[in-house]
Specification:
5 helices; single chain; 153 residues; alpha+beta; 18% strand; 6-stranded antiparallel beta sheet
């Protein structure tokens, strides 16, 4: 398969148990339809606290300007021009025929970090503390505090 940006052959590799196609030039990644869900569920890759802080701490507002025609790349499967799609606060290219998604360098990891942080599983002690705080009216404050960094507002 050819990279939609560089027009060079991508190299297959396994990431989080999923066969992906990575461009050796720009390091972008093609995921077939549904593979992003598999990657987020798998969680083999462990991110450092610093990697998480950098991604979650980026509070810059997401604004996607209308793409120029040169910013629209062809789907490597069907050749149709892909559109821009907001995926967990990261703009990726998506095939209109739902063949898959194109992630620029580093975007797949960012999407994975954000999705995993949104799905964070709380320990029993954390749940007990949240229940106690909710009785004191602090639970709403806690949710507001975590919603903004995770772009849930």
């Amino acid at each position: 398969m050819k990279c939609p940006k560089c027009d060079v052959e991508t190299k297959p590799e396994t990431y989080e148990g999923v066969q992906i196609d990575r461009c050796p030039t720009c390091e972008g990644v093609w995921l077939d339809d549904g593979e992003i869900r598999q990657i987020i569920r798998e969680r083999e890759r462990k991110f450092t606290d610093e990697e998480i802080r950098v991604v979650v701490g980026d509070r810059s507002p997401l604004s996607v300007p209308p793409p120029d025609e040169v910013d629209l790349y062809p789907c490597p499967k069907c050749g149709e021009k892909m559109g821009k799609h907001d995926l967990t606060g990261i703009v990726v290219d998506r095939c209109p025929g739902r063949h898959g998604l194109w992630f620029d360098k580093g975007e797949i990891e960012k999407a994975q970090i954000l999705a995993e942080q949104r799905q964070k599983v709380f320990t029993k002690a954390e749940r007990r503390e949240m229940a106690q705080r909710s009785k004191r009216g602090v639970f709403a404050h806690f949710l507001s505090a975590i919603a903004e960094p995770l772009h849930l507002k």
